[in-house]
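Hi F.,

I've been meaning to write this up properly since the lab meeting, where we talked about keeping a consistent format for the predictions we share between groups. The idea is simple: the sequence comes first, exactly as it goes in, then the structure tokens exactly as they come out, then a line or two of notes. No screenshots and no reformatting. I'm using this chain as the first example so we have something concrete to point to.
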Amino acid sequence: MDDSKSSTCALPGYRTVNVIVSTRADRELSLEILAEKLSGCVYEPEIFPGLVYRRSDPKATIIAFATGKITSVGSKSEEAARMSIVTTVSEIARIEGEINVGNITTENVVATVDVGRQIDIDKVSGCVLKTIYEPEQFPGVIHRPKDNVVVIIFKSGKLVTTGSKSENEAKSTLCAASKTLKECGCLIEKT
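Output, unedited:
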């Protein structure tokens, strides 16, 4: 899917709801020390091997591992997610000394939109390629437009995408799915 399509597709109500980014430090991290010195940290290695650091500015949850892997989850934009990593690395450096990290990589963008109409779910599963619909197990149609990217289509008109590697890709994925639903005649008036 071409990311440039997102600029020509109007999706009122489009929202990025979660961005996950990660990086790796050039050395191991002392999670016990960080847990003591960073306010808002939880480190319980008997339950989970990572340090969980809930940040408020920028708002995100940072998960750091002794191996040096650092992940940010819960941000509403790629910019905020990246900033949460940069800010956390600065805080770690003040505690542990100089630390270098690799590129910050976007791992997943979750986004949603409401197409403003109900969707004929039975028609979707017969018209749209690469779909799975098992209503006794899950109320939505699972559409896989490309490797690792999923669009979940609900009768209510809500579409959720996950697996995109950028906000542009998430938006263009939802644009393409919305267009396909319209072309297939799957959109119906809300009751």
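Notes:
The CA atoms of residues 63 and 106 lie 15 Å apart.
The chain has two domains: 3-15+108-188, 26-101.

If this format works for you, I'll send the rest the same way.

G.
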